[in-house]
Amino acid sequence: MFNRNYKEKTIESVLFSVSALTVVILFLICLFLFRDSLLLFKDTSLMDFLTGKFWYPTSVNRQFGLLPLFFGSLIVTAGAILFAVPLGIASAIYISEIAHPKVADALKPFIEILAGIPSVVFGFFGLVILVPVVQKMFNLPTGQTALTGSIMLGIMALPTIISISEDAISSVPSTLKQGSLALGATRWQTMYKVIVPAAISGISAAVMLGIGRAIGETMTLMMVTGNTAVIPAFPEGILSPVRTMTATIALEMGEVPQGSAHFHALFAVGTVLFIITFLINLIADSIKKRYRFKVD
């Protein structure tokens, strides 16, 4: 009995230590990012950084404007979500409610495999296959555009959206479905008037996590978006080359002098990206908790 209690206490202590270590690591990451990014504002004001329209880090009159990078990330992520959300939710409904169990069991492993493919492989696919198609379809000088990046990010976000949405739809109590059918509703009416509204919290969490997956992507966007740090014009900006915040950090960090203003500006961009992703994850977690509460 004593040995059993001792083992339980030991396991509990180990689990607590691992959890505490995770919190400490997150705190150190925040401290590391904020410390180096704040040094930028000795020479550049915060408003100039947040509202600046130009990113010229190596010119004589250097400018560290976040807006071109922010809007590049925004337009690519928005396009990815517009592409991935309808397709992902429709796929989740098909797997959960329409497909034969054998077909559903065969599709799920392929979705999980898609989630595990390295981003550089997606980048090669986009560069070799999708870029020429976009260039030829819209008669553009180059196919490396925000549209290409949006499509590739949408494909990469699909596994997250499909998996979580399918779990949410499958968790809807069968009594709701049976009650709807018993009252005379058709199968399709039951799906979009009963099942989807009942699972909307889980589906919303899937969308938020898909956004977080898309906005933090680097390698694929470096290869297919053209990496032009200008504010994209509206509405044709989707067919223009753009540069995202993640791609900027990856492209420039390896060559920037350590401790320079440019170095600290990249940390400031990383801090903004960290805050955005952190907020998205908090919102998604809040939605998932609300969903679990309703299901319970």
UniProtKB/TrEMBL annotation:
GO CC, any one term: plasma membrane
Record InterPro entries: MetI-like, MetI-like_sf, Phosphate_PstC, Phosphate_Transport_Permease
Entry annotated with the keyword Transferase: no
Any one GO BP annotation for this protein: phosphate ion transport
Chain ranges passing through the membrane: 12-34, 64-89, 110-134, 146-164, 194-215, 261-284
Subcellular location: Cell membrane
Membrane topology field: Multi-pass membrane protein
Protein's UniProt keywords contain Ribosomal protein: no
ABC transmembrane type-1 domain residues: 70-284
Gene3D superfamilies membership: MetI-like
Family annotation (CDD domains): TM_PBP2
GO molecular function: phosphate transmembrane transporter activity
Chief location bin: membrane
Keywords assigned: Cell membrane, Membrane, Phosphate transport, Transmembrane, Transmembrane helix, Transport
Described purpose of this protein according to its UniProt entry: Part of the binding-protein-dependent transport system for phosphate; probably responsible for the translocation of the substrate across the membrane.
PANTHER family xref list: PHOSPHATE TRANSPORT SYSTEM PERMEASE PROTEIN PST, PHOSPHATE TRANSPORT SYSTEM PERMEASE PROTEIN PSTC
Similarity field: Belongs to the binding-protein-dependent transport system permease family. CysTW subfamily.
Name of this chain's protein: Phosphate transport system permease protein
The organism of origin for this protein: Methanosarcina acetivorans
Lineage: Archaea, Methanobacteriati, Methanobacteriota, Stenosarchaea group, Methanomicrobia
Encoding gene per record: pstC
